[in-house]
Amino acid sequence: MTTLLFLIGGFLVMWMAAGFAMLEAGLVRSKNVTTQLTKNIALFSIAAIMYWLVGFNLMYPAEWMMEGYLGPFFAITALEPVGLDAANASLDYASVASDFFFQLMFCATTASIVSGTLAERIKLWPFLIFVVVLTGFIYPIEASWQWGGGWLSEMGFSDFAGSTLVHAAGGFAALAGALVLGPRLGRYVDGRVVPYPGSNLALATLGTFILWLGWFGFNGGSQLAAGTVGDITDVGRIFANTNMAAAAGSVAALILTQVMYRKVDLTMVLNGALAGLVSITAGPLDPTLFGALWIGAIGGVIVVFAVPMLDKLKIDDVVGAIPVHLIAGFWGTLAVPFYTEGTSFVTQIIGFLSIGIFVFVVSLVVWLILKGFMGLRVSEEAELAGLDTTELGMEAYPEFAKG
Amino acid sequence: MTTLLFLIGGFLVMWMAAGFAMLEAGLVRSKNVTTQLTKNIALFSIAAIMYWLVGFNLMYPAEWMMEGYLGPFFAITALEPVGLDAANASLDYASVASDFFFQLMFCATTASIVSGTLAERIKLWPFLIFVVVLTGFIYPIEASWQWGGGWLSEMGFSDFAGSTLVHAAGGFAALAGALVLGPRLGRYVDGRVVPYPGSNLALATLGTFILWLGWFGFNGGSQLAAGTVGDITDVGRIFANTNMAAAAGSVAALILTQVMYRKVDLTMVLNGALAGLVSITAGPLDPTLFGALWIGAIGGVIVVFAVPMLDKLKIDDVVGAIPVHLIAGFWGTLAVPFYTEGTSFVTQIIGFLSIGIFVFVVSLVVWLILKGFMGLRVSEEAELAGLDTTELGMEAYPEFAKG
Amino acid sequence: MTTLLFLIGGFLVMWMAAGFAMLEAGLVRSKNVTTQLTKNIALFSIAAIMYWLVGFNLMYPAEWMMEGYLGPFFAITALEPVGLDAANASLDYASVASDFFFQLMFCATTASIVSGTLAERIKLWPFLIFVVVLTGFIYPIEASWQWGGGWLSEMGFSDFAGSTLVHAAGGFAALAGALVLGPRLGRYVDGRVVPYPGSNLALATLGTFILWLGWFGFNGGSQLAAGTVGDITDVGRIFANTNMAAAAGSVAALILTQVMYRKVDLTMVLNGALAGLVSITAGPLDPTLFGALWIGAIGGVIVVFAVPMLDKLKIDDVVGAIPVHLIAGFWGTLAVPFYTEGTSFVTQIIGFLSIGIFVFVVSLVVWLILKGFMGLRVSEEAELAGLDTTELGMEAYPEFAKG
């Protein structure tokens, strides 16, 4: 049954890859849509290969999983043989394949976060090389500190489904990239922010709904056990809380943009829902529904304030991934002790900072190396003309005239 | 296992929210797409909060679920504590969280139906306030008459998954709104109907497929039990019948529009599939596959005739929600006695009318109050320019020139 | 539990219908999008009815399923009565309804493959009549040779989830149609291939992700048993291998298009992922993850070479369905003996050719009859103006000006 939970959870999280692709394709301008779609399907594919080749065994080193043994860390993931021996056939057995499948989806999610922030100006191949490093090494190393039984878990850090380990980590890698890459041309002029509206809000909304759906797998599957009725009941609690936090984040952004700008801002509402989801991810089991509501709502509020704040700092985050994943991820991690016994604010902050600093510094180094060796950014002409024609020679909407 | 059924069913029905959003965004004109998307994500979020705050306990009043007790009806939903005690750990145990999660999705669906009919002319906030009342009070009260063990269930009324309780109820609320709101400007001129074609039929088709998929959760989960192999086998029957009814409704509309108009009409085919689904929803378990076929096919036929009929009455239903959900919902409710023993046509009609009158009258009063206090309709200028620029200041497709 | 596997697998495969619809709608030009959407929802609906009326019992003839008995083959599918008797209530019981539901989705998939190849020039009704024959007769007959316990299965042919029986069969039916129909006007001029770029690559990418997700049901459900922990563990292996093959196909096409054309081609990457999926479908259980990787990667390579090869032969396949489903299907079938004991290359080739020749010849005859009786192809004027206005009178994107 735990295997089944991993499989259902895993296909739901896999679906989040489509959600990120649609969200990002909807929020970039139409001249960059093909490139954004290509990055999303490519990063998901690369993650699948790198996490198999290196990541999974780096994250959960275990003798019995190693085959083609090259050293304690660099064993390639191997599955158990077909046909389970009777000794293992208990209801809470989790097969290696299902565990690998489920954990891989978290690794891919981390990479998806990065692609949104850096859209519309980064070259395809340096980005994909960064994905190789992120999914093969950076994510597995930091995640092993907690989920691999490392020092953070021994210290008492608590991050149920990855507000810090997945979302904030993706956000830190994106932040490092955004600083190295710089903002899009013409985005900040004379202290003013020039809006670059997304080309297809229907796609962006679809992407958000997909992510919302996939999150039930993300948080629910992280129960990591489904052998008993009690486990499944806990998964139910997680579903209800996850949904509540998303709803609260969305409503908070809805009301706040109406109050602050006199007009509701759909992209803020979408990001508010996502921020609510990120906020509850560190502790979706223990809060009451009211707890999920206020934790998620604060996530929504964070987004409305953090997006313009980043723009003030001239950090150009095309889809708002840093507010949603990094800042709301911090909030979610911090909020755990309100409902989960045996956790402390100090430990939560230490855990968040440790992972943040590690991911940020290593990512920064990787981005700088990539910049030095092959250049990160397309030429000015290419950026103005759009990456689709210049990088790929293929438009996403070739027949729709530009207004 | 029942908990698991609720969770799987629930995430499928949650996905229907995305289906409604895409269907409606595809069927409105592009100048109103952002507004329609905003309404859909906002109504789903509001439903989640209102159904928790009021609705669930209003619908299923039960001592043991009450916490923060304010009176027999207004208790806020509370979950059981984490960790199930052994006494409850049977295979057919359904946790409160999973039940709440599943039932919430039905409540949200009711609200989704309303947004389509009233599109392209209603203001955002009065609509959202109506959603507050509908999801917090109107739906839970009428649904409790049947599913809360109220007088309709005692009378022998039968509505397995909600042809009347969800779909027709949503349709009646929409009808009341359409009457108060009036048709879109320029829609009916000199006794002629001016077609306002949907802006994106690919999205509308995607939305229909999403709804079709989600309906397996809607009808299958309504078995409400999965503790035995027999229960799961019944869920299988429901899946097969649900699919058959949708297919039959689609094919009926396909053939009928070819015969009547010499050209197949895709939007009719989509609505035919949906009407087939609504038609089987009152009784998806008992019919044979042939039963599901003819019940669904009549649903498809109903749509093809009802859409022009509504236009004759100058009731402007942007997406065809009243034919699909109200009229096919009536048909589905009426058809139950053909296959389900112990039901009668008279009881079905009484049940349908009771719920219809209640929802229609209360909705009418709410719409009229909202009209009096804050106005329901945008200005003529705003309607002509589109709600996206005037209400939200944000276009869905800013770069696609208008043809 | 096997019933449950069929239901979960079935709804995932049902979702592939939406995937094909989006993929094909994204890859045709905007003037043919409505027609393509109509074909997809209609073929899925027709398959549901024909597979019930004829196909299922033709494929799995069994006394106990027959009702309305007209002969050994033409019995209409009937479900068991509601309420399972205790004798059958074992965990590995698979109900007729769930089996029918699951197998139906494979039948519908076969038809979906055909619609893509023949897009942009075939009339609606002859295509739908072909679907009637394909889903009622051709597919059930050839599939019964293997899955109905026929001579291929007795011979030792191995096709776990249908690389040959579903994918190549669909590809052969499409190939026959493409030969009878001829290429689109102006596609091949003076030995040069004129590119007709797809109108909406975001939709095409969404469709690919949907198919990727649905494939977990396609391959995983084909385990056909979930009564034991060992079975579920095998399903986990299948999920992991399926995902790996898709990722490898995608990365192979990514790298190869960069190397060969100096620019990554998104549609090739999408088709590469799909070809990887088709390649692993004949044997998703037995390979190691490394096996899935190289089998899938070769699938991706096949697509990159086969697409221009077909164009050289002036076989006009609008979405690349023949390379993806037929040619990669051959590769997948051929690759089975590398990992599955008791299979042989010779038997695999015999099986593939038997099914290929049968489907191709029968399809060819049907296409020629349809051509003779009612004509297959729209007029030249209609093809140039687009099928949406001429065949259906309804544009998919009426407001987006043509660039």
Automatic annotation (TrEMBL), chains A, B, C:
GO terms for molecular function: ammonium channel activity. GO terms for biological process: ammonium homeostasis. SUPFAM superfamilies: Ammonium transporter (SSF111352). Residues 6-397 form the Ammonium transporter AmtB-like domain. The chain crosses the membrane at residues 6-28, 40-60, 100-119, 124-141, 161-181, 201-218, 238-256, 268-285, 291-311, 318-339, 345-370. Its main location: membrane. The keyword Zinc does not apply. Keywords: Ammonia transport, Membrane, Transmembrane, Transmembrane helix, Transport. It is found in: Cell membrane; Membrane. The keyword Lyase does not apply. It comes from the Bacteria. One of its GO terms (cellular component) is plasma membrane. It is a multi-pass membrane protein. Gene3D superfamilies: Ammonium transporter AmtB like domains. Belongs to the ammonia transporter channel (TC 1.A.11.2) family. This is Ammonium transporter.
